[in-house]
Amino acid sequence: MSEAPVWGWGSSKVLGLFALAALFLVVWIVVENRSSEPLIDMRMMRTRAVWSNNLVAFLLGIGMYAALAFIPEFLQTPKSNGYGFGASITESGLYLVPLTIMMFLFGMFTGKIAAKIGSKVAVIIGGGASTVGYFVIAFAHTQPWELVAASTLLGIGLGLSYTGMSALIVHAVPPEQTGVASGMNANIRTIGGAFGAAVMSSIVTSTLLSNGRPVESGYTHGFAFLGAMTVLATLAAFVIPGGPGVFGNNVKHLENAELAMIPGGPIAEA
Questions:
Q1: Which of 170, 214, 216, 265 could form a disulfide bond with 83, CB atoms 3.0-4.6 angstroms apart?
Q2: Dihedrals phi, psi of 206, to nearest 5 degrees
Q3: pLDDT value at position 132?
Q4: How many whole angstroms separate alpha carbon 34 and alpha carbon 24?
């Protein structure tokens, strides 16, 4: 996927590798189903609460990692190109500070928020906030405050969503499977990130100016794509099973669920 923007999405190399990956996936599933001690229990992966959370994680991952890569690129584009802010590396990083702070704060307090409204609702609200953030960057990116507002919304949305998913995953499986389930959720999120970054790169660089920089519409279409994927993630969150432990107040929410925001950092409830 990372080479697809260079080789071409329809090239024999990319299509061949996708086909090979699909073949290996089938083989892996067969082996796991037949193993007496599987690395991943396929019956667990078929559980609605697990696969629905994994689908949401994949779709949210598409947006998160691509945004962190391309927001600084957009900000650092010289104003002479008709868009961008000509920001330095340090200045572009400062625009992402609201995202970092909000993601940490809302991740830290999602347990208390979810105790009131439920983890599923927290994921849905988080997806909605992230969606607005992506569309703000796509269609309103001429003023610094617009980027700051979008960064803030993304931090709120991602903090709520990822932490809420962690609680849902942990409570959807038996205690002995929490580590595997939360680990797979983190891995699937990272796979979504790889896919999103590659697609975003193809969209942004599809049309270039004479100086080799992307046209403004490339970023508009790219961030709109991320927003659309987050809309799908929000809709997919409605498929997550409801009931006690999801909407109700009788669930024990994870005190350190904010650790789920760390890529590849699964959490497990002792």
A1: 216
A2: -65, -35
A3: 97
A4: 15
Tokens at 256, concatenated = 């350190």
User: Coil, helix or strand for 218?
Assistant: helix
Q: What is the pTM of this model?
A: 0.83
Half-sphere exposure of 194 (CA within 13 A, CB side): 10
Beta-carbon contacts of residue 13 (< 8 Å; ≥ 6 apart): 3, 7
Q: 208 phi and psi, to 5 degrees? A: -120, 150
CA 67 – CA 223 distance, rounded (Å): 8
Best CA proximity match to 164, nearest among 129, 194, 137: 129
> Tokens 């790889």 map to which residue?
194
Rounded Cα distance, 181 and 173, in Å: 7
Q: Is the dihedral of CA 186, 187, 191, 193 positive or negative?
A: positive
Token readout for 222 is: 């790219």
Mean pLDDT of 55-73: 93
